[in-house]
Write a structure and sequence with these properties.
Elements: E1 5-12, H1 16-34, E2 38-42, H2 47-53, H3 59-67, E3 70-75, H4 90-100, E4 105-111, H5 124-127, E5 131-137, E6 149-152, E7 158-161, H6 168-184, E8 188-193, H7 199-215, E9 220-225, H8 226-235, E10 242-245, H9 247-261, E11 268-275, E12 282-288, H10 305-319, H11 322-337, E13 340-341, E14 351-352, H12 355-370
Parallel strand pairs: 1-2, 1-3, 3-12, 5-10, 8-9, 8-10, 13-14
Antiparallel strand pairs: 4-5, 4-11, 6-7, 11-12
Helix pairs in contact: 1-10, 1-12, 6-7, 8-9, 10-11, 11-12
The protein binds nicotinamide-adenine-dinucleotide.
Nicotinamide-adenine-dinucleotide binds next to helix 4.
Length: 372
């Protein structure tokens, strides 16, 4: 039972509110039929918040996010905001949420439902049934560490540089999340770096090895260089269960793994913070990988499944409601097996439907599966 758990819903811009509206129908269904009830609160973020308040994230919404048990996020951005100053751009709202909630662990699953295996750029037998999880460190490493800059040199030419810096506590905290996730899955973890050529990679490998010896019970861990991992992801992706890696390699490898699934409209993600020792709670934000898709906004075309699968991740990772998450994912699988498709995943011989009809179909399947 999840009564009185606080869920902050931030639909955002473009197709964000469209896919969120559809997902809230499932949230409602779960409250009625599975006793998965939340105290729902809705807020503005991104361009919508800028239009109403002149800022992409108000202090009140930030405080609501920090107080919530989980945040379900849509998407932000749009061409009408492109000329705004940097600090007022819609994307700043999302970045501020990630930063202030200290969401250091980014989970990107790459799951290929059987019915979708032909949408991948790889052969069907390589990807059918694929289920891997990439865990990317999100708040450290080369995108944040100092020194970084572009300097002029004595001869008038310039040098640009970044620093890939990790401390042992940063590696350990993401390593612990990786062990937890692996234990809940097949128990296999691949830790990825480039210890052959980078000192930060040497420290990453040494730290993960020591942490595994101390806290890695039940997890079989191996190490892999990032370049090899990129090759293995397209050669034989099913060899992986959970991959943990730094911010830079995670950025690249998770996009590569995502494309194995062939469909942006189906990709969820989660970003988690540390567990607070006094409350036992952890900040968490769940969002589809896609953006606000201004090219199709307002036309009822958006695929709501990435947002729905973000909600199933929320049930799993914030509330341990695995059976409820399984039920929704089974309903999605049945709908896809029956040949129902939104435009972005349309294939020959299938039925093309709107966002709302896609969710009608999921709800019908949920009714069937639950015997309602
Ligand atoms: P996008 O993900 O919005 O769209 C890329 C393409 O995929 C478009 O053709 C779009 O129609 C399609 N698409 C995306 N989601 C879909 C869905 N659910 N169903 C069907 N088709 C879908 O990326 P973009 O076009 O590069 O960016 C558009 C705006 O979104 C920009 O302002 C960008 O800054 C913003 N953005 C926001 C986020 C976020 O909020 N996390 C992420 C990426 C981009």
């Amino acid at each position: 039972m999840a009564a009185n758990k606080k869920l902050l819903v931030l639909p955002g811009d473009g197709i964000g509110p469209e896919v969120m509206r559809e997902v809230l129908r499932v949230v409602d269904w779960m409250a009625k039929h599975r006793a998965v009830g939340f105290d729902l609160q809705e807020g503005l973020v991104g361009g919508a918040a800028f239009d109403a308040h002149g800022t992409p994230l108000t202090d009140e919404t930030m405080a609501d996010a920090a107080a919530a048990d989980a945040v379900l996020f849509g998407a932000v951005g749009g061409p009408q905001y492109d000329s705004l100053p940097f600090e007022q751009k819609p994307e700043r709202g999302l970045l501020q949420l990630r930063k202030e909630m200290d969401l250091f662990a980014n989970l990107r699953p790459a799951i290929v439902f059987d019915a979708m295996a032909d949408s991948s750029s790889l052969k069907r037998d390589l990807v059918a049934g694929l289920d891997i999880l990439i865990l990317r460190e999100l708040t450290g490493g080369i995108y944040f560490a100092q020194p970084r800059g572009i300097d002029e040199m004595a001869d008038g030419s310039r040098k640009g540089y970044d620093t890939n810096l990790y401390t042992t506590p940063e590696i350990e905290r993401v390593g612990r999340v990786a062990f937890d996730l692996a234990r809940k899955r097949q128990g296999r973890l691949t830790s990825v770096e480039k210890a052959n050529v980078m000192m930060s990679g040497v420290l990453w490998r040494e730290t993960m090895t020591a942490l595994h010896a101390a806290e890695g019970d039940g997890v079989e861990m191996s190490h892999m260089y990032a370049d090899n991992c990129a090759m293995q992801l397209v050669r034989n992706p099913k060899q992986f269960d959970v991959i943990v890696t730094d911010n830079l390699f995670g950025d690249i490898l998770s996009d590569c793994a995502a494309m194995l699934t062939g469909s942006l409209g189906m990709l969820p993600s989660a970003s988690l913070g540390a567990i607070d020792e006094t409350t036992g709670k952890r900040h968490a934000l769940y969002e589809p990988v896609h953006g606000s898709a201004p090219d199709i906004a307002g036309q009822g075309l958006a695929n709501p499944l990435a947002e729905l699968l973000s909600y199933t991740m929320l049930l799993r990772y914030s509330f341990d409601m695995n059976e409820d998450a399984d039920l929704i994912e089974q309903a999605v699988q049945n709908v896809l097996n029956s040949g129902i498709r939104t435009a972005d995943i349309m294939q020959d011989g299938m039925a093309r439907v709107s966002s709302t009809v896609m969710m009608d179909s999921v709800l019908k399947e949920l009714n069937k599966l639950a015997g309602v």
